[in-house]
Amino acid sequence: MAGLNGSERPDVAQHVAMRAVVWWMELQSGKDTRAQQLALAQWRAEHPDHERAWQHICSVSGRLRNLTDATGDAASAAAARAALTRTGASRRRAGVKALATLLFAGGASWIASEHAPWRAWNADAHTALGERRSLTLADGTRVTLNTDSAIDIRFTNAERRVRLVSGEIMIATGHADGERRPFIVETAQGSLRPLGTRFAVRQQSTLCRLDVFEGAVRINPAEAPALAPVVRAGQRARFTRTDVGALEPISENDAAWTDGLLVASGMRLGDFVDELGRYRAGHLSCDPDVANLRLSGTYPLADTDRVLDTVARILPVEVVFMTRYWVTVRAPRA
């Protein structure tokens, strides 16, 4: 398959593509060491796909810097330059998955994707990895964006609409023009109509999650508008374009991210690591052997390295940094 500027995309697994991106980002940092160079050489020699992925990323990353808006792929050029600028200016805010998608999919397929990173970068409001941002809309509605999130805002004489492009938001609705101009939250799976409330919406890969903390919210799946269930305070619902799942209970701890905290109460370590990974650049994973361990506590999201260090002190696990962008939580080894 052709990638950006006609380059051939190697048919490699996503984890191999992401690992190649991690190595590439390490070298771009300018702080690579002899040990890292040797480790990269060893990784490249482990499997033919590793070498193919590395050669591809080196080839394409060079082309990206030479693309101009005069080419037939102007949108890709602009998006590519944005990706590279973000990586160089703030490595901690770089998105490995975004770069892997860009460098290994490329061109029209990347631009056409509903979840292409450039859509978030061009949104009306967005946050980087690990960042939170709050803003007050013209009607008094308060919106808080979680890590790596983006929204578009469209207020007209007929409605007040917020489109969740990616990530997660908390909304405390204002009350101006409630009947004359309904407030609507649009997601990839449908729309939400709050009934004077405080609620969180999280866009996931194939579904959307709604948590209601005050009031109530009506769900309208895009392809099943007749369903239209109402989710009330203390309830969670997940929905797709065609269906709405069973209601689940929530607590105020599920809103702790708005205060920069991750609260665990008997949480599986695997789930905890997945959640923590949303707030740091790169790849963070948990080995299946320790994924079912449980932990509790309140953890500050501003310093994920500190959180990982705490986890290693309270549970029988170790945290292994292959690089700054490739971290694994596993059972201790002799």
TrEMBL record:
Q: Which InterPro entries match?
A: FecR (IPR006860), FecR_N (IPR032623), Ferrdict_sens_TM (IPR012373)
Going by the entry's taxonomy, the superkingdom of the source organism is recorded as: Bacteria
Residue ranges annotated for the FecR N-terminal domain, each copy included: 20-59
Q: Which residues form the FecR protein domain?
A: 125-218
Molecular function GO labels: sigma factor antagonist activity
Q: Which Pfam families match?
A: DUF4880 (PF16220), FecR (PF04773)
Q: What is this protein called?
A: DUF4880 domain-containing protein
Q: Give the organism the record lists.
A: Paraburkholderia dipogonis
